[in-house]
Amino acid sequence: PRLLVIHGPNLNLLGAREPKYYGLTTLADINLALARRAEAAGVQLDSFQSNHEGALIERVHAARDEGVRYIIINPAAYTHTSVALRDAVAAAGIPFIEVHLSNVHAREPFRHRSYFSDLAIGVISGLGSEGYLLALEYLISKLKAD
Ligand code: DQA
Predict the structure, then answer these.
(1) What is the pLDDT, as a whole number, of residue 84?
(2) Count of CB atoms within 10 A of residue 104's CB?
(3) 146 Cα to the center of ligand 1, angstroms
(4) Which residue puts its alpha carbon closest to atom 2 of ligand 1?
(5) What residue numbers does the annotated binding site for substrate cover?
(6) Residues 6 or more apart from 60 whose CB is under 8 A from it?
(7) Residues 51-78, mean pLDDT to the nearest whole number
(8) The CATH number fitting domain 3-77+85-106+138-145, selected from 3.40.50.1110, 3.40.50.9100, 3.40.225.10, 3.30.565.10
(9) What pLDDT does residue 17 have?
(10) CA 88, CA 3: separation in Å to the nearest integer?
(11) Is the Cβ–Cβ distance between 53 and 11 less than 8 Å?
């Protein structure tokens, strides 16, 4: 796949999980919308979710071998804790956009720090599930310009 979407822990519960922060859209809905948009643009896109740090790291390593061009990643709680996942994306050297459904800066102070933002092309936070589609739109135009 040319593009990879990575969803971190607890995002499998989207739709049911704290809708005040994360909305009512399920992860399957998000992945379907992304797949449809990518297909319409003639771009290959894969989605992956895991609740395990090591599985996320290994998916990033595999992306490097697959020649994935860009990653859209919502590291979820690992955003604020995982030096290991940060090191994996740095090692893979694949440019990425960091997405959060909620506005992490309007929430608890421990959510204000990200181990990813300084490495990201850019960050989208607080636009709900739309954020993923906006990130995809940007990458589609970037792929065309590359
Ligand atoms: C999140 C924000 C994180 O702080 C939180 O741990 C999540 C989801 C978001 O998409 O808003 O699990 O990444």
Answers:
(1) 98
(2) 21
(3) 31
(4) 76
(5) 74, 80, 87, 101-102, 111
(6) 6, 71, 85, 88, 89, 91, 92, 94
(7) 98
(8) 3.40.50.9100
(9) 85
(10) 17
(11) no
**Which atom of ligand 1 lies at the shortest distance from residue 10's CA?**
12
Average pLDDT of every residue of the chain: 96
86 in contact with ligand 1, CB cutoff 6 A = no
- For ligand 1, whether the C-beta of 100 sits within 6 Å is yes
Tally of CA atoms within 13 A in the half-sphere of 28 that contains its CB: 3
Write the pLDDT tens digit of every residue in 109-122: 999 999 999 999 99
Amino acid 124 reads I
114 CB within 6 A, ligand 1: no
- Complex-level ipTM beyond the 0.90 threshold: yes
